[in-house]
From TrEMBL:
<keyword id="KW-0285">Flavoprotein</keyword>
<keyword id="KW-0560">Oxidoreductase</keyword>
<dbReference type="Pfam" id="PF14759">
    <property type="entry name" value="Reductase_C"/>
</dbReference>
<feature type="domain" description="FAD/NAD(P)-binding">
    <location>
        <begin position="2"/>
        <end position="300"/>
    </location>
</feature>
<dbReference type="InterPro" id="IPR036188">
    <property type="entry name" value="FAD/NAD-bd_sf"/>
</dbReference>
<dbReference type="InterPro" id="IPR028202">
    <property type="entry name" value="Reductase_C"/>
</dbReference>
<keyword id="KW-0274">FAD</keyword>
<dbReference type="InterPro" id="IPR016156">
    <property type="entry name" value="FAD/NAD-linked_Rdtase_dimer_sf"/>
</dbReference>
<dbReference type="Pfam" id="PF07992">
    <property type="entry name" value="Pyr_redox_2"/>
</dbReference>
<dbReference type="InterPro" id="IPR023753">
    <property type="entry name" value="FAD/NAD-binding_dom"/>
</dbReference>
<protein>
    <submittedName>
        <fullName>NAD(P)/FAD-dependent oxidoreductase</fullName>
    </submittedName>
</protein>
<dbReference type="InterPro" id="IPR050446">
    <property type="entry name" value="FAD-oxidoreductase/Apoptosis"/>
</dbReference>
<feature type="domain" description="Reductase C-terminal">
    <location>
        <begin position="319"/>
        <end position="404"/>
    </location>
</feature>
<dbReference type="GO" id="GO:0016651">
    <property type="term" value="F:oxidoreductase activity, acting on NAD(P)H"/>
</dbReference>
<dbReference type="GO" id="GO:0005737">
    <property type="term" value="C:cytoplasm"/>
</dbReference>
């Protein structure tokens, strides 16, 4: 019997345990996760870890002895297979049943598979875990032609790293621009041009029919022809890991549904991080699942607050970053509901921002090598969404005028 049983030893799950101990919570805590590693951060997996510029031990969220010293039981390499919300227990693939007072579901989600023949061939990779990247990196050493399926952040970051390493990289994107799900068109076009300038081939509107090869992939067949590939990376998003909790009766849509205290529809069961579907003020009151470190940490803190008797509803301006070549993109707010955009600065200078507006209010910014806009834009997003502040458009467009 644990006071707090946390399922998923990733960014969000680990943060619950850390925040509980920080708040002097003395109850028993177990952190259970399928991966063999102690909690580590994923962002470097498609950036400096893929590039071989960051060592594995530097991915760890805390030093190895932290968990025992804080009396947090790590149960690694173990998967929760069923939850009984009435009996307040969870069963694992080791055949044990663990009782709980509070259950925190922080399971993230596995990469979405591309539904085409050949997806299981050797040489077809995803980037979600350290183990994924270790195999990928070893194989990439001898690869010449690398095909990346998906022009989202992870695919583009990998393209930047691998092209810098001298590989011939092709990105196959199904939509008519990269980053289509997350950014406005000027940002997409900017990144397409940057990648092309670095020698990456970007194919838009790509229709993949098949991964070809005997045992190991050697080509990708698209509607337009066959492209040789020594290695393929599929980066087309994740599927939230909800099955076991859904089977226990939790309300699920695009993720586990939670309220603003991260409570699911089951008693004493919370869900947080990439797998949690919540109504977000910065999504203009719409339900959303956020896949970011910021959201994982802030939702974890919300849960720790509820468990320690100091509940504080989740309220945080979303932010995110992506590094490609020497470009540091920082985003703040959520651009999904925008009806207009304004460009600040000259994209050709390599330092500029795209401001997203909804009914004149600033709802988000994508800032490229423009840290000042990112920092100052946060307050503008907050004032726009929470108080309906409508800034002067001419001032907004003028990058000489600080957003402050
Ligand atoms: P995860 O960190 O995925 O942890 C979930 C864990 O639960 C996993 O270890 C999983 O194996 C385990 N699990 C699943 N089911 C079970 C079960 N039934 N029983 C036990 N354990 C289970 N975010 C940013 O903000 N900026 C970035 O630049 C950025 N870059 C990224 C680059 C990559 C390559 C990736 C993959 C992600 C990146 N992210 C980035 C996203 C960020 O890492 C995630 O949002 C964050 O890790 C989510 O935390 P989580 O705890 O919800 O899920």
């Amino acid at each position: 019997q644990y006071d707090v049983l946390i399922v998923g030893a990733g960014q969000a799950g680990a943060q619950v345990a850390m925040s509980l101990r920080m708040a002097n919570f003395e109850g028993s805590i177990a952190l259970i996760g399928t991966e063999p590693d102690a909690p580590y951060e994923r962002p470097p997996l498609s950036k400096d870890y893929l590039a071989g510029e960051k060592a594995a031990d530097r991915l760890q969220l805390r030093p190895a002895d932290f968990w025992t010293s804080r009396n947090i039981e790590l149960r690694l390499g173990e998967r929760v297979t069923a939850v009984d919300a009435t009996a307040h227990n969870a069963t694992t693939d080791r055949g044990v049943t663990l009782g709980y007072r509070h259950l925190v579901w922080a399971t993230g989600g596995p990469p979405r598979a591309l539904p085409v023949p050949g997806g299981n061939l050797a040489g077809v990779h995803v980037i979600r875990t350290r183990a994924d990247v270790d195999t990928l990196r070893a194989e990439a050493e001898t690869a010449t032609n690398i095909i990346i399926v998906g022009g989202g952040y992870i695919g583009l970051e990998a393209a930047a790293v691998l092209s810098k390493a001298g590989k011939h990289v092709t990105v196959l994107e199904a939509m008519d621009r990269v980053l289509a799900r997350v950014a406005g068109e000027p940002v997409s076009r900017f990144y397409e041009a940057q990648h092309r300038a670095h020698g990456v081939t970007i194919v838009l509107g790509a229709k993949i029919e098949k991964f070809e090869g005997e045992g190991r992939v050697n080509a990708v067949r698209t509607a337009d022809g066959v492209l040789p590939a020594d290695l393929v990376i599929v980066g087309i998003g994740i599927v939230p890991a909800v099955a076991e909790l859904a089977a226990a009766g939790a309300k699920v849509s695009n993720g586990i549904e939670v309220d603003n205290l991260c409570r699911t529809s089951l008693p004493d069961v919370f869900a947080i991080g990439d797998c949690a579907f919540h109504v977000n003020e910065y999504a203009l009151g719409n339900g959303i699942r956020l896949e970011s470190v910021q959201n994982a940490i802030d939702q974890a803190k919300t849960v720790a607050g509820v468990i320690t008797g100091a509940p504080k509803p989740y309220h945080a301006v979303p932010w995110f970053w992506s590094n490609q070549y020497d470009l540091k993109l920082q985003t703040v707010g959520l651009s999904g509901g925008h009806d207009a955009t304004v460009t600040r600065g000259d994209p050709a200078s390599g330092s500029w921002s795209l401001v997203y507006l909804n009914k004149g209010r600033v709802v988000a910014l994508d800032c490229i090598n423009a840290a000042r806009d990112f920092v100052q834009g946060k307050a503008l997003v907050d004032a726009g969404v929470m108080q309906g502040l409508v800034p002067d458009l001419e001032l907004l467009k003028n990058s000489e005028v600080p957003l402050k």
